[in-house]
Amino acid sequence: MNNAFKALSDPTRRKILDLLKNRDLTAGEISDHFNMTKPSISQHLKLLKNADLVQDEKKGQFVVYSLNTTVFQELISWALDFIDKGDGQK
């Protein structure tokens, strides 16, 4: 979960996740939304993948990225559990 929080701390990676919320995209389609080099976008995607926030699938000559909602569910569950425990201490 630490890798997920680290990945979420960057605004560029959060915007990538926002884009993937709407539909699966290739790295090229993702990079079209940013004013940075494709290798920089690739590095952000690598960090998101290492945090299990995104998945990739090779389709022909393209790699398509999609959200891994399982990790988001785990994060939400952790946060709700944290809040519930905090409420019980009041």
Automatic annotation (TrEMBL):
Full protein name: ArsR family transcriptional regulator
Keyword presence, rRNA processing: no
Record keywords: DNA-binding, Transcription, Transcription regulation
SMART domains: HTH_ARSR (SM00418)
Any one Gene Ontology molecular-function term assigned to this protein's record: DNA-binding transcription factor activity
Domain of life: Bacteria
Alphabetical list of Gene3D superfamilies matching this protein: Winged helix-like DNA-binding domain superfamily/Winged helix DNA-binding domain
Signal peptide, first to last residue: none
Keyword DNA-binding: yes
InterPro entries in the cross-refs: ArsR-like_HTH, HTH_ArsR_DNA-bd_dom, HTH_MetalResp_TranReg, SdpR-like_repress, WH-like_DNA-bd_sf, WH_DNA-bd_sf
Pfam families: HTH_5
Domain HTH arsR-type residue range list: 1-87
